[in-house]
Here is the input.
Amino acid sequence: MKLLARAAVLVALLCGMAAVVTPTPALAGPPGGPGDEITRGAIAGRVVVAEKDGDGVRPVPRATVQLRKKGSDTVLRTEKTGPKGQFEFRGVPAGEYVVRAGKPELGAGIEAATVEAKKVTRVRVLLKKA
Here is the structure.
């Protein structure tokens, strides 16, 4: 009888621990898991800076790009731009976000982005000196 009681306590403890460490679906693991194609989208774009003569823009390679939830200072993800200033955040839960980009010698920029499930939101972040 004691063995059965101990087993019941062990099962209860394990179930309780499983409930504590189970992540919520929107925040669970890296992109590409089950259901991502239904509930997640992407943010893709380019980081640019105005030409010195004021006539057009040029891409900014190796700029730092941060993804934050709208109204939050918490950085969710960070990327570096590619050689043509391009970046992409895949597997982003649907919602409102802010994309911040910068490069010390060129300045910083910010753009709002709304992510919808199964869609790619395009943004262009223009860097400006403060």
User: Anything to note?
Assistant: Residues 36-127 form a domain with the Immunoglobulin-like fold (CATH 2.60.40.10). The chain has one domain: 36-127. The first helix runs from residue 2 to 21. The radius of gyration is 21 Å.
